[in-house]
Amino acid sequence: MIKIVSWNVNSVRVRLPHLLELIDSVKPDVILLQETKTEDQTFPKEDLQDKGYEVIISGQKSYNGVAILSKLPIELIADKLPGNDNDLQKRYLEAKILIDNPITVSTIYLPNGNPVDTDKFPYKLEWMDRLYNHVETKVKNCETFLLGGDFNIIPTPEDAVDISKWYKDALHHPESIKRFRKLLNLGLTDSLKTFNSKPYEFTYWDYSRGSWEKDNGLRIDHLLASPFAADRLVDCQIEKKFRALERPSDHVPIWCQID
């Protein structure tokens, strides 16, 4: 059985003590990181190798950035999302975990898309279209895979305290939701909802306006399992305690166990 964690750390260098605490307390075999906000040469690779992890990085100065950490043998499959060679933003990594029944994992930092009246929103939609095309191919090939990350998507009204405030926002815009549902309709499973059907279970709380204290959060971090991966799911939960730490990320880890 393996435990896979996804976490938008909002700067891996700032949040390194929290990441090390996650390793010691949650004991993940694989960690999918987003928004690492550092170039490859300044990523704290040695600290994580000392903990027994192989590290694959796709970094970018100050913005974006993704990484995969694994205690298990791992092989890089892709360091960017296919379909647009002109896209230089570091938002996607895909690797295969080389176990007896291999599983491919992708760490995803999907574009926010706001403000919707700028070119950021068409970029988000184009990125989601490319993600759909890539995942569709993987499903047709009967691959076993897990998509983990900050999707910047509020899927349902129960994933925000007051969803009416988000109808014109890129996180719950009809065009964003249409694409997310289309992705799910390929046969993907929302892993958390398989094991925790309670409403208002959040993964993100804004730094301002007392969002954390009021539990005014969002569920925008997801672990989506392919049909063959979903058959192997054992559990999926949120590690809410990490939002209460000193100088926390505005996101918390979400993990699943797969046999």
Helices, strands, pairings?
Blueprint: E1 2-8, H1 16-26, E2 30-34, H2 45-49, E3 54-58, E4 66-70, E5 74-78, E6 92-97, E7 103-109, H3 120-140, E8 145-150, H4 174-184, E9 189-190, H5 191-195, E10 221-225, H6 227-230, E11 233-238, E12 254-258
Parallel strand pairs: 1-2, 7-8
Antiparallel strand pairs: 1-12, 2-4, 3-4, 5-6, 6-7, 8-10, 9-10, 11-12
Helix pairs in contact: 3-4
Would you write up a description of this structure?
There is one protein chain. This protein is of the alpha+beta class. It has one domain (2-258): Deoxyribonuclease I, Chain A (4-Layer Sandwich), CATH 3.60.10. It contains 6 helices and 12 strands. The strands form 2 sheets. A 6-stranded mixed beta sheet has the order 3-4-2-1-12-11. Helix 3 packs parallel to helix 4.
Question: Summary?
Answer:
Helix content is 22%, strand content 25%.
User: What is the arithmetic mean of pLDDT?
Assistant: 97
Q: End-to-end distance, in Å?
A: 4 Å
CATH class: Alpha Beta
Number of helices: 6
SSE string? EHEHEEEEEHEHEHEHEE
CATH topology type = Deoxyribonuclease I, Chain A
Strand ordering within the main sheet: 3-4-2-1-12-11
Count of spatially separate domains: 1
Rg (C-alpha, Å): 17 Å
CATH architecture: 4-Layer Sandwich
Ranges where pLDDT stays below 50 over 5 or more residues in a row are none
Major sheet: size, sense and barrel closure?
6 strands, mixed
Q: Given the helix and strand composition, which structural class is it?
A: alpha+beta
Strand content: 15-25%
Helix content: 10-25%
**Gross morphology:** globular
Fourth-tier CATH superfamily name: Endonuclease/exonuclease/phosphatase
Kindly state the number of beta strands. 12
